[in-house]
Automatic annotation (TrEMBL):
<dbReference type="InterPro" id="IPR036390">
    <property type="entry name" value="WH_DNA-bd_sf"/>
</dbReference>
<feature type="domain" description="HTH hxlR-type">
    <location>
        <begin position="11"/>
        <end position="110"/>
    </location>
</feature>
<keyword id="KW-0805">Transcription regulation</keyword>
<dbReference type="InterPro" id="IPR011991">
    <property type="entry name" value="ArsR-like_HTH"/>
</dbReference>
<keyword id="KW-0804">Transcription</keyword>
<dbReference type="Pfam" id="PF01638">
    <property type="entry name" value="HxlR"/>
</dbReference>
<dbReference type="InterPro" id="IPR036388">
    <property type="entry name" value="WH-like_DNA-bd_sf"/>
</dbReference>
<keyword id="KW-0238">DNA-binding</keyword>
<protein>
    <submittedName>
        <fullName>Winged helix-turn-helix transcriptional regulator</fullName>
    </submittedName>
</protein>
<dbReference type="InterPro" id="IPR002577">
    <property type="entry name" value="HTH_HxlR"/>
</dbReference>
Length: 115
């Protein structure tokens, strides 16, 4: 406890949220998918600096925890797209608030850590 008698223990839920969303690229992938379903190539082009293998790993991880789902349209040609699940869509208010925070505190133009 601090001098005010407040306890500064981080709850397990918050720990798990930041362990997942704080992992590099995950938040940006979710942010990109808030715009609607996207094909792998669209995500790769739209998220500056991410490579295909890393994008693939992160999409699998986000699917495993129930935030993203993969859809396969049989072809020809076969098309694979990704979209947020209802749980992923539930992050919209938080991601939008983080975006507003970034606009306010990361400056304009954003420094490299914010872009």
């Amino acid at each position: 406890m601090d001098a005010d008698g407040a306890d500064h223990v981080v709850c397990d839920h918050l720990f798990h949220v930041f362990a997942l969303l704080g992992k590099r690229w995950n938040g940006l992938i979710i942010g990109a998918l808030l715009g609607g379903p996207a094909r792998f190539s669209e995500l790769e082009r739209g998220i500056s600096g991410i490579g295909g293998p890393m994008l693939s790993r992160r999409l699998v991880e986000l699917a495993e925890v129930g935030l993203v789902e993969r859809h396969v349209e049989t072809g020809p040609p076969v098309e694979v797209s990704y979209q947020l699940t209802p749980a992923g869509e539930g992050l919209r208010p938080s991601v939008e608030e983080l975006r507003r925070w970034g606009e306010r505190f990361c400056g304009s133009p954003p420094p490299p850590a914010c872009s």
